[in-house]
Amino acid sequence: MDRATINMNRAEIEKTIEPIIQKCRRKFAPGYSETEDSPDTDEPLRPETRRVSLIASLAESVLGSDFVGRGLEVGSGYGCLLFPMASLFPKIQWFAIEHPDQPHASRESYRSMFRSYNCHLETADLLREPFPFPNDYFALVTFSEVQEHLPTDRVNLVLSEIARTIRPGGVLIASSPNQASLENRLRLMKGKSILDVPNEIGKGIFGHIRLYTPAEIQSAMSKRGFTLERCEMESNNSGYRGNSDRSWVRRVH
Fold it and tell me: I need a labelling partner for 61 at 20 to 30 A (CA). Which of 131, 229, 230, 232 fits?
């Protein structure tokens, strides 16, 4: 597997990781099987690409591109974050936790991609089980677009497990949709709900249950002993930002 170095700007990172994200969607999104790829989707790649490139940039700014240690992704999903990070940070030994009832988690093609990127997969129900790792095990943990899927009474449990398994002085990079974003405020002003009624996709697997403000996330993290070093806010909803580069709505983001 070819590996990149991360001494690149955001545009260069995005050019590198976009094919990986596209492959993950094609191979593991709903509708795929071991013999057939997922059907094409109208969902743009840019929001996912921007999310991953931001996390990679944050990791590089804190750890550097040659960092050696263990990393964990909590909730690996289709691998759209994990495999780009493994490509950009090849000296990190990457682990991931995924729910055992996710269809892709048991697929040989999914596990094969883990092996090709030298990543290690563990399955666990985060709502009911501790992380299958010892204390102080990881130097870097990514917790991206997961918190909003957790029942509110289980958030502290998951955050406590992250705090238990990350080493003293380790780095946690978390991301979650901003409840107080301009887009959400405009939706409320139009009489629309920010979220649909929460639904259980599978046993212990949920769509969005609750969104959080940056202050709420910082407060929850601080109670687990984490200190905020840096906060970045971006809007990745390209459709919302307008169709033209000269669009006012696009420029204000």
Answer: 131
